[in-house]
Amino acid sequence: MRDQWSNIALGALVAQIPVELRYTLFGLSNLQWTFIVLVVTSASLLIENRQRLLSDRLVQAATLFVGIQWLAVVYAPEFHTNALKGAIRFTAGLMLLTIARISNKHQSVGRVWVISSVLAAIYALVAYAGFGFTWLFRTEEFYIGQIFQRLSGSFEYPNTAAAYFALSLPIVWWSSFRPALRSVFVFLLWCAIVLTFSKGALAAIPVVVLGGAILSHSDAAGWKTGAAFLAIGVVAYGVLLPLQPYLWERLHGPNVRSPIAAEYTTPWNKLQEQPGTYGQIPLEIRNTGVTKWRSQGWWRVAVAYRWWNAETETFLKVMPLITKVPRDVNPGETVAIPAAFQTPKEPGRYILVLELFSGNLHWFSQTGVVPTLIQADIHASISRVLGQTDLSSFY
Questions:
Q1: Residues β-bridged to residue 338
Q2: Is the per-residue pLDDT at 60 higher than 80?
Q3: What percent helix, strand, coil does the chain show, rounded to 5?
């Protein structure tokens, strides 16, 4: 009976690894509470099997590693709290290892891992398409250059998701499920890993597969199985290429055009105007990157502005007017946009910074794209005057 409760708790823990909620009960998450239940239900079994565990080479090596972590806590010159947290986590990992070693339901637990990881990958892909419940797991999304969203799924960080899915790949591929199902499952996991944009995860998987094949002296059938496993990853990358332009940059390297790049042209860059006045500036924008600018949908871009106060050298905290891009703009194309703006309510000398953005005002300039600048003198007693001036010192 004790074995049964321990195995149930172990299966529940494995099932919850990819779905740790950010909401806690008495400071502990659902995963942490399940771990406590697992330790309590397994305590007597650990005591009964202590001699077996003490002679287990894997447990011995893990214990030595955890002991070194605790020595690091004692002798750490600084960041003691972080070192302590790390040692506690490794100790919890050692406890989980010992419980798994005495479990008599390895195959059942493995099937639970397979099903949980595949469901986590499916949810991650659905959430990446904009239909997830981010608030359950984290408070923000993560981007490359503020433009390309990294897949996090039900995890707090993209790299955590990448590590879990990479760890799950061989478990799924060499599981007892039918080959057709395993191929579909592995394809979904590969897609999830690719969209995390984790170079470490993508590099580690073939290295581990190759190393495992060499160390285990695999025969021809074993090499073919490993090659098929990696081939599915290549297929997943190829399928995602048309859907995620950043992957082209990953393939071709930094010497090609940037995925996000733009050139702005304006007929004037000097403005005299009264405070609180609405206006427009004819703006031509050329897409010099490799990414299509979408005018609608989840990844749409638009034009907005910020006012830089030349005296205080700070941006005004005002909500700008937003001008939509009239159509999708492919790489190499130019689009004309009458960019709307409103002058500041307080007189003074300003710089109007006009540029494209995506998401919640994720400015293109945050990726290195140079915006267009307009020098503005705002006074109540003058009429509107447009002109040209040298603003090279601001670039």
A1: 282
A2: yes
A3: 50, 20, 30
- Amino acid letter for position 117: S
pLDDT at 268: 94
Compute the distance between CA of residue 99 and CA of residue 297 in angstroms, rounded to an integer: 48
Q: Which two tokens stand for residue 388?
A: 């040209």
Task: Identify the CATH homologous superfamily for domain 262-394.
Answer: Immunoglobulins (2.60.40.10)
H or E element, residue 351: strand 348-358
And the tokens for 58?
A: 């894997």
Residue 217 has pLDDT above 80, yes or no: no
Q: Which two tokens stand for residue 291?
A: 């990414």
pLDDT digits (tens, 9 = 90+) for 225-283: 888 999 999 999 988 887 776 666 655 555 445 667 899 999 999 999 999 999 999 99
pTM: 0.66
Query: Quick one: average pLDDT of 312-320?
Result: 90
3-class DSSP state of 269: coil
Paired residues of 375 in beta bridges: 270, 351
The DSSP bridge partners found for residue 284 are: 265, 336
Tokens representing residue 192 in the block = 């999830």
Report the C-alpha gap between 303 and 307 in whole angstroms: 14
**Tokens 């005018």 -> residue:** 295
SS3 (DSSP) at 377: strand
Please give the average per-residue pLDDT across 325-348, as a whole number: 94
* Spacing of C-alpha 274 from chain mean position: 45
Please provide residue 338's backbone torsions phi and psi, each rounded to the nearest 5 degrees.
-80, 95
Domain ranges (residues) in the chain: 1-104, 105-256, 262-394
Q: What is the DSSP letter of 49?
A: T
Tens digits of residue pLDDT in 2-40? 688 888 999 999 999 999 998 999 999 999 999 999 999
Quickly list DSSP for 72-133: HHHH-SS-HHHHHHHHHHHHHHHHHHHHHHH-S-HHHHHHHHHHHHHHHHHHHHHIIIIIS-
pLDDT of residue 134: 86
Q: For the purposes of burial, counting CB atoms within 10 Å of the CB of 193, is it exposed (0-12), middle (13-18) or buried (19 or more)?
A: buried
* Residues whose CB falls within 8 Å of the CB of residue 165, separated by 6 or more in sequence, listed in order: 117, 120, 121, 124, 189, 192, 193, 196, 201
The one-letter amino acid code at 341 reads F
> CB–CB of 38/152 below 8 Å?
no
Kindly give the pairing relationship between strand 372-378 and strand 270-273: parallel
